[in-house]
Write a structure and sequence with these properties.
This is ABC transporter ATP-binding protein. One of its GO terms (molecular function) is ATP binding. By secondary structure, this protein is α/β, with parallel strands linked by helices. The chain folds into 2 domains: 2-215, Rossmann fold (3-Layer(aba) Sandwich); 220-295, no CATH class. It has 11 helices and 16 strands. It has helices at residues 41-48, 70-75, 92-99, 108-117, 131-142, 161-174, 189-195, 213-219, 232-235, 255-262, 273-282, and strands at residues 2-12, 17-26, 30-34, 56-61, 64-65, 77-80, 149-153, 181-185, 198-203, 206-212, 221-225, 238-244, 247-252, 267-269, 284-287, 292-295. A 6-stranded mixed beta sheet has the order 6-7-8-3-9-10, sandwiched between helices. Strands 2-1-4-5 form a 4-stranded antiparallel beta sheet, with no helix packed on it. Strands 12-13-11-14 form a 4-stranded antiparallel beta sheet, sandwiched between helices. A hairpin with a 4-residue loop joins strand 15 (284-287) and strand 16 (292-295). The longest helix is centred in the middle third of the chain and has 14 residues, at 161-174. The chain starts with a strand and ends with a strand.
Length: 299
């Protein structure tokens, strides 16, 4: 079962053009949502949360359209914006008083546990909090009403490495219950290396990756070898290829061909998520008979 299903969604404004976007977020896993700045990640998050209306297509959460039961659906979601949209004059105590009534499963004790963990004074005014402290408050609010789905838009932005690691550990702990699902949009790719099970990659208004991370990493490999062994036929088997004096580095789904031809004269490694994003981001779309694949740019 999928916690989120986005089907052929299109949305266009002056800054971006999302075209027939389709992907799913499987229940019980951490899905990383990546893409360059300005690619439309935050817009898609807002479309999912019904803060914007798609111009075509549909979005389902928990197998329902948001318009069918928006109050109950949103009660199941712990949503963390990239910024904290609360009255700066409120104290944290006042923020809880205003927010708690919207959730029938609000847990005061859980909220206070997070405040202690994040060293957030209950009576502190929001305007006195640093950017990092505001993000921690945002997370504490989202994680204190027994949500089933957590939608996190840049949740570790502004946090120092120690606190960021703590937040990621908390996200992992939430998944001890197999019904919990996390959809995390972030530009800090190292965060996803630590926690992601599934990956969605948005590029130029289109989804170019949408699969379990282990399947992606098993499919794509980085090959390094001597430039003089690389001809145009081999280049055509790469997603992206770059050459330097020391040799070539290529991303490919046909690593076995290179291995069969050159054996231990080539190095074959599993890519990191960051390398996938970089090389697929540089690649160009090639049409195949059954689906869209990605090939190397002209060198």
């Amino acid at each position: 079962m999928n916690a989120i299903e986005v089907n052929n969604v299109s949305y266009k404004n002056k800054r971006l053009d999302l075209k027939d976007i389709s992907f799913e977020v499987p229940q019980g896993f951490v899905t990383g949502f990546i893409g360059a700045n300005g690619s439309g990640k935050t817009t898609l998050v807002r479309l999912i949360m019904n803060l914007l209306t798609p111009q075509s297509g549909s979005i389902r959460l928990f197998d329902q359209f948001m318009r069918q039961d928006e109050i109950n659906i949103k009660e199941k979601i712990g949503f963390v914006y990239s910024e904290l949209y609360l009255n700066e004059k409120w104290t944290i105590k006042k923020a809880e008083k205003m927010i708690a009534p919207f959730y029938k499963n609000w847990n005061h004790d859980t909220f206070h546990d997070y405040l202690k963990k994040f060293d957030l004074p209950y009576k502190a005014k929001i305007k006195t909090l640093s950017t990092g402290m505001k993000m921690k408050l945002n997370i504490a609010l989202a994680f204190s009403h027994e949500a089933e789905l957590f939608i996190l838009d840049e949740p570790t932005a502004g946090l120092d490495p120690i606190v960021r690691n703590e937040v990621l550990n908390i996200i992992q702990e939430e998944l001890l219950n197999e019904n919990k699902t996390v959809f995390i949009s972030t530009h800090i790719i190292s965060d996803l290396e630590k926690i992601a099970d599934y990956l969605v990659y948005l590029k130029d208004g289109k989804i170019i990756l949408n699969d379990y991370l282990n399947e992606i990493l098993n499919s794509y490999k980085i090959v390094r070898g001597e430039s003089e062994t690389l001809d145009e036929e081999l280049k055509s088997l790469t997603v992206y290829c770059e050459e330097a004096r020391t040799g070539y580095t290529a991303l490919t789904q046909e690593a076995h061909v290179f291995e069969e031809l050159f054996g231990n004269k080539v190095m074959i490694d599993e890519p990191t998520i960051e390398e996938l994003m970089i090389y697929l981001g540089k690649g160009t779309v090639l049409k195949s008979n059954s689906h869209e694949s990605y090939g190397n740019d002209v060198l």
